[in-house]
Design a protein that fits this description.
The protein is built from three helices and no strands. It is an all-alpha fold. The protein folds into two domains: 32 residues; 32 residues, no CATH class. The longest helix is centred in the first third of the chain and has 21 residues. The protein starts with a helix and ends in a 13-residue tail after the last helix.
């Protein structure tokens, strides 16, 4: 099989050269049309959760609202950091 490919390539040099030139031209054209981002977006995705608990003390909000939300968010994949404030 490989010998046949080699013999075909040797006997059809012009065809092989033409195919190589066509591939190079299409490759260069494709590379030219590709979008290149010099400065990619490096900011990590951020999620903000705001809750409103009228009439509850800060400790109650922390225990009944904030802590369960933090626990659920920490269980998500690829979470780097969780910050919270309760008042």
């Amino acid at each position: 099989m490989l010998n046949k490919i080699i013999m075909f390539s040797i006997s059809n040099k012009f065809f092989i050269l033409l195919c190589a030139v066509v591939l190079i031209v299409f490759g260069l054209r494709t590379a030219k049309n590709m979008d290149v981002d010099v400065f990619p977006d490096l900011t990590a995705p951020t999620v903000v959760v705001m809750t409103d608990a009228h009439g509850m003390a800060g400790e109650e909000v922390e225990r009944l609202v904030t802590f369960p939300i933090e626990t659920a968010v920490n269980g998500a994949t690829d979470v780097r950091r969780v910050r919270s404030a309760s008042s």
